Amino acid sequence: MSDDFENVESTASLTFPQQTSALRVNGHVLIKGNPCKIKNMTSSKTGKHGHAKWVITGIDVFTGKKHELVSPSTHNLEVPVIKRTEYILTDIQEDGYVALMTDDGDMKEDCKLPEDDTAKELKAAFDDGK
Question: Is it the case that residue 58 has pLDDT exceeding 50?
Answer without folding.
Answer: yes
